[in-house]
Specification:
Elements (H helix, E strand, L loop, with lengths): L2 H23 L10 H30 L4 H34 L24 H63 L3 H17 L3 H19 L5 E2 H18 L4 E8 L6 E2 L5 H10 L7 E10 L2 E9 L3 H4 L6 H13 L4 E7 L3 E8 L6
Parallel strand pairs: 2-4
Antiparallel strand pairs: 1-3, 4-5, 5-7, 6-7
């Protein structure tokens, strides 16, 4: 038996025991003592109802109600109710007869009483007076009292099952959502910008045809960038310094493509040690700066800043908008949308992203909170 299941059984036993003790002692007067004779029929009928509680919750509702066999459920529950009414009357009558036979020889002394017993029984017995009273009291309590008790336990059982099913469904939905998030995150991580790969290969090819001395450096940088992407694609967090080194290699590759027209301002502030970041979380913003912030006719400046301050990381980019016809679709850019989704999955309530634009410039400001330690 699994430990969790055993703990659950013990918890249920404890709850029923506490309820039994409370109900048994609650009507007891200060001058009375606990009597096994008085409470034993109550305990027996209580155990009957506890058994019904679990039969109803774990079998009748599951097998009949959930399968829309409502008539069978009503018949089954009705049979158990009739059996309980008979059982209740039989148990209390049996104990009454046993106790009455013990006290019949003592007419001047009142016999033991079921008075105050929450699960019923005659209020007093012990003489002819009771026998006359019994004809009026017993028939009424024989049906009404056990019926009330049974309906109470039926209601508790139905509520218990309803709450249990709701909690199980809620837990299952959370597990499904978590699994979907993991699958989605893996998909987002696996995406690589094909334009960057093709453009870089074209640049290396062009440098090679020209016999440029920069060709070996370009191949080395490209291999480092690609290796980092594939090495870290399944990694949850990396040291911030590793991510900065990767961004440096990416920028150096872009500079090889736009030697004469591009000016990069890459500013790093603060102590990077001890900070961890999700790999490739900044690259989509940087890619968009290069995609839309470079002119073929004018010298372009792209500003990138990473700052580590306390437990937080501050990231920002700034670039002029040159490709304005295409820039209007930038908000729908797949790379930015994917990065937003990754931030919401990995840093829920732990990041603040601001994207602003004017007629001439485009700005991104991102704060990631609590990056010290994994």
């Amino acid at each position: 038996m699994h430990k969790k299941k055993l703990i659950n059984i013990l918890f249920h036993l404890l709850i029923w025991t506490v309820i039994l003790v409370i109900i048994t002692l609650m009507p007891l007067r200060p001058d009375h003592t606990v009597s096994l004779t008085r409470n034993l029929p109550f305990i027996i009928t209580y155990l009957y109802l506890v058994c019904f509680f679990y039969i109803n919750a774990n079998y009748l509702i599951v097998k009949l109600i959930l399968n829309k066999k409502y008539l069978l459920y009503i018949l089954g529950t009705g049979m158990i109710l009739l059996l309980y009414i008979y059982f209740h009357h039989y148990i209390f009558s049996l104990f009454f007869q046993l106790d009455f036979s013990q006290t019949a020889e003592m007419p001047l002394r009142r016999g033991p009483s079921f008075e105050g017993s929450p699960f019923g029984g005659p209020p007093h017995f012990g003489g002819p007076h009771f026998m006359r009273e019994n004809r009026m009291v017993i028939p009424f309590r024989r049906i009404i009292l056990p019926l009330t008790q049974f309906l109470l336990f039926w209601l508790l059982s139905a509520c218990y099952k309803l709450i249990y099913e709701w909690m199980s469904l809620h837990k299952k939905n959370k597990e499904i959502e978590a699994e979907k998030s993991l699958i989605e995150l893996a998909y987002l991580k696996a995406q690589i910008n094909p334009h960057f790969i093709l453009n870089t290969l074209n640049t290396i090819y062009s440098l090679t045809l020209k016999g440029s001395e920069k060709a070996p450096d370009a191949i080395l940088l490209y291999s480092q960038v690609i290796r980092y992407i594939f090495d870290k694609i399944d990694t949850d967090f990396v040291p911030l310094q590793e991510e900065i080194d990767y961004i440096n290699d990416y920028i150096d590759l872009q500079v090889l493509r736009f030697t004469d027209t591009l000016n990069i301002e890459f500013k790093i502030e603060g102590n990077m040690e001890g900070h961890w970041i999700v790999p490739l979380i900044f690259i989509s913003f940087i890619e968009n700066s290069f995609q839309y912030g470079i002119s073929n006719h004018y010298r372009s400046t792209i500003s990138i800043s990473i700052k580590a301050d306390g437990n937080n990381i501050y990231f920002s980019t700034e670039n002029r908008k040159y490709k304005k016809n295409d820039f209007q679709h930038m908000g729908k850019n797949i790379g930015i949308k994917n990065t937003k989704r990754k931030l919401s999955l990995i840093y829920p309530d732990k990041h603040k992203l601001s994207i602003k634009e004017t007629n001439e410039f485009f700005y991104i400001d991102l704060i990631i909170f609590g990056t010290s330690g994994k």
